[in-house]
Design a protein that fits this description.
By secondary structure, the protein is an alpha/beta fold. It has eight helices and ten strands. Strands 1, 2, 3, 4, 5, 8, 9 and 10 form an eight-stranded mixed β-sheet that branches. A two-stranded antiparallel sheet has the order 6-7. Helix 4 (about 130-140) crosses helix 5 (about 155-165). The chain starts with 5 loop residues before the first helix and ends with a helix.
């Protein structure tokens, strides 16, 4: 049913596709541009551990190796350099690493952003709940600079990310939308650092950064890419594949 609701999603994310179409385009582009089959790809993702984040994969995507999960709350790559190095050693020598990373956000059938209707619940709930909680604390002025506790390390990290962009988020037309943009930028920056610090025994590293969009329980899921870069580790060349992806 997700094609039926895509125009509602596109009011917020104009280039969004269903998650199935997203994965198909990703694999099509890689096969067309790099001549690599799914079975040659070592897949890692950095997404929120929320149970609603189940990507709808087309059958051929199951041929990819992995996924290795880098993400914690709202998709920040909390697995760090140890996690990145761990899965880097699993890649086929004649293949490539692909890292998909995205914060997530909900959009209901009527276009309300920041929440969804979940299975078995009569009322809508926050999505992403961690982001919504951090945003509420930001609005209430309850986030303390530098306060990160081992008891709630991941949530505290998100709070600090939002605090450092406080005015931008609070002055936005949609605070939930803007907080998700801020989160994407923080994730993207961290992924770039982790990739730079990791050795991969293959020719290519592919970085696919996006916003992952959850719909109501009978809507399915969607995705809008913000980056699709190919790093050639032999030449040092970096190439964007976004035009090829959307053609």
């Amino acid at each position: 049913m997700n094609n039926q609701h895509i125009e509602t999603v596109r009011k917020w994310y104009p280039r969004a596709l269903t998650s199935i179409d997203t994965v198909n385009r990703l694999l099509d582009t890689i096969e067309r541009e790099l001549e690599l089959k799914p079975s040659q790809l070592m897949h890692a993702d950095s997404m929120c551990c929320d149970d609603v984040n189940a990507i709808q994969y087309p059958p051929r995507a199951m041929e990819m190796l992995g996924p290795f999960h880098l993400g914690g709350l709202n998709g920040f790559p909390f697995a760090g350099i140890t996690g990145m190095n761990a899965f880097a050693h699993h890649v086929p020598e004649d293949g490539a690493v692909i890292i998909f990373y995205a914060p997530h956000i909900g959009i209901t059938k009527n276009g309300t952003i920041g929440e969804i209707s979940r299975i078995g619940q009569s009322k809508n709930s926050a999505c992403c709940g961690a982001a919504k909680g951090a945003l509420s604390r930001l609005i209430e002025g309850k986030i303390i600079e530098g306060n990160i506790s081992s008891l709630d390390f991941q949530m505290n990290t998100i709070e600090q990310i939002f605090l450092h962009q406080k005015e931008r988020i609070l002055n936005a037309e949609s605070q939930s939308f803007e907080a998700t943009e801020v989160m994407y930028e923080a994730i993207d920056e961290r992924i770039e650092v982790l990739v730079k610090e990791t050795h991969y025994p293959c020719k290519y590293v592919l970085l696919a950064g996006a916003i992952f969009i959850n719909g109501d329980k009978d809507m399915g899921s969607f995705c809008q890419y913000k980056k699709f870069d190919c790093l050639n580790l032999e030449t040092g060349e970096r190439r964007s594949l976004m035009n090829e992806y959307y053609q």
